[in-house]
Structure to design on (459 residues):
């Protein structure tokens, strides 16, 4: 057979190995010898600027399990940072991608077009909040889509400025790095940064200086003051994460997001929801904006949108989107056909697997298992989040002082026992839980019990 002939028919089995056994199995210490050998190669071949959470190399993954090259089966509380909500080898995604790959891998949508792109756009136009006329432009990464949302807002308003918030994360590219709040490791040494980015306070309930009951009102007043100071007529966009991701899974106080939307509208500023991490059923609604009835002018999705293939989108009011002149938007890979095929598989699974309800169920289970620990531990300040985007914030017992060492220790204890947790937060003291939405409930509970035991060790 010629090497140019596909070795299997187009409708190949979705996963030649089947889904990994949905069970936590530890056969070596973590990382095991094979992972350690690969890590040595990695350290020689890659620059130290590329970090890693757990130096374990993956052989395959699916459902709620990641199998490493030593045969360890880890419980996945990361989903590749909120990406593989449908699992890392879901047949609905894999089958479509295989079929698409065997048909054509790329044409560049700017050169010749394909239906999958339009299908993804139609779905997003229909399912994002608001009944108004919408259009969608596709890109590859979250940062790229955020940059394009700002470009579109600038083009449609003729204004330069962008307002973002404390604890925000919007990416690592030049503009989004400036929009991201945290200096280290995201910005340090990488300046000069893009200008015209202004930052307003975010009502972080646990840490609002005058108390949570004042947070909404004071944060909105601070936003108004900022707009007064910099001139609202210079601001193109206000960009906000409805639930902050990297900043610590912070759910702003009730009323804040609708207030921001109203302020933006009042000044002719484009209101942009960054749903890169919170979108696509993760928070127990299709989009986190829905929890407070927001109708963003532009909504940015990525991550879980294509279940592991690089795809991002800006969806918004047709008249705002039309601000960018013909030829002004694009990218070689933007809306790649494999990624569009994957997204269509995700859309199918959102429905067939009722992923919104699953995320709600995950929240109930997480609360049930972890609330007793939070109640009894002085080191856990709070359990918070929405749906399957939950986290615990760790402090020095009896204070609100962030305790990043405790978060590192708890996370390391989970990793040793085969539960892949992630740390986040401006102060590095938040442990987040981002399981695939399709995780078996007994695996979820097992992982939570490991985490709960590690938290109990703190005091
Ligand atoms: N907006 C809300 O969460 C990506 C970052 C991982 P990209 N978050 C994970 C890392 O350390 O680089 C993110 C996000 C929100 C934008 C982005 C950026 O998405 O696909 O990583 O560019």
């Amino acid at each position: 057979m010629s090497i140019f002939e596909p070795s299997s028919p187009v409708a190949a089995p979705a996963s030649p190995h089947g889904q990994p056994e949905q069970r936590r199995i530890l056969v070596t210490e973590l990382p095991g010898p094979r992972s350690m050998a690969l890590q040595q190669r990695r350290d020689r071949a890659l620059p130290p600027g590329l970090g890693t959470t757990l130096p374990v190399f993956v052989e395959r993954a699916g459902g709620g399990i990641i199998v490493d090259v030593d045969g360890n089966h880890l419980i996945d509380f990361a989903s590749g940072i909120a990406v593989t909500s449908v699992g890392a080898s879901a047949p609905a995604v894999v089958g479509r991608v295989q079929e698409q790959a065997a048909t054509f891998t790329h044409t560049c949508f700017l050169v010749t077009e394909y239906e999958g792109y339009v299908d993804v756009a139609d779905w997003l136009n229909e399912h994002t909040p608001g009944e108004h006329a919408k259009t969608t432009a596709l890109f590859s990464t979250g940062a790229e889509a955020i940059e394009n949302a700002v470009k579109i807002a600038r083009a449609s308003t003729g204004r330069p400025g962008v307002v973002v918030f404390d604890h925000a994360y919007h990416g690592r590219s030049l503009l989004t790095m400036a929009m991201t709040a945290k200096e280290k490791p995201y910005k340090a040494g990488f300046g000069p940064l893009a200008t015209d980015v202004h930052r307003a306070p975010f009502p972080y309930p646990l840490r609002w200086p005058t108390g949570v009951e004042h947070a909404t009102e004071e944060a909105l007043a601070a936003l108004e003051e900022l707009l007064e100071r910099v001139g609202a007529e210079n601001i193109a966009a206000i960009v906000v994460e409805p639930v902050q991701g990297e900043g610590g899974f912070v759910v702003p106080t009730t009323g804040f997001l609708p207030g921001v939307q109203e302020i933006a509208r009042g000044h002719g500023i484009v209101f942009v929801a960054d749903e890169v991490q919170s979108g696509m059923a993760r928070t127990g609604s299709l989009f986190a904006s829905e929890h407070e009835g927001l109708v963003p002018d532009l909504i940015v999705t990525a991550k879980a949108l294509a279940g592991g293939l690089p795809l991002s989108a800006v969806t918004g009011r047709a008249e705002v989107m039309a601000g960018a002149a013909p030829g002004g938007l694009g990218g070689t890979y933007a809306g790649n056909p494999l990624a569009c095929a994957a997204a269509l598989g995700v859309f199918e699974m959102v429905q067939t697997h009722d992923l919104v309800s699953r995320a709600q169920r995950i929240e109930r289970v997480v609360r049930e298992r972890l609330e007793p620990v939070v109640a009894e531990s002085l080191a856990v300040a709070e359990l918070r989040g929405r749906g399957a985007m939950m986290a615990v914030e760790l402090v020095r017992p009896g204070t609100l002082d962030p305790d990043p060492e405790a978060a590192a220790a708890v996370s390391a204890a989970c990793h040793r026992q085969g539960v892949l947790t992630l740390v986040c937060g401006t102060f590095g003291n938040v442990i987040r839980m981002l399981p695939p939405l399709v995780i078996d409930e007994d695996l979820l509970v097992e992982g939570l019990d490991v985490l709960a035991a590690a938290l109990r060790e703190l005091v």
About this structure: Confidence is low (pLDDT under 50) at residues 1-15.
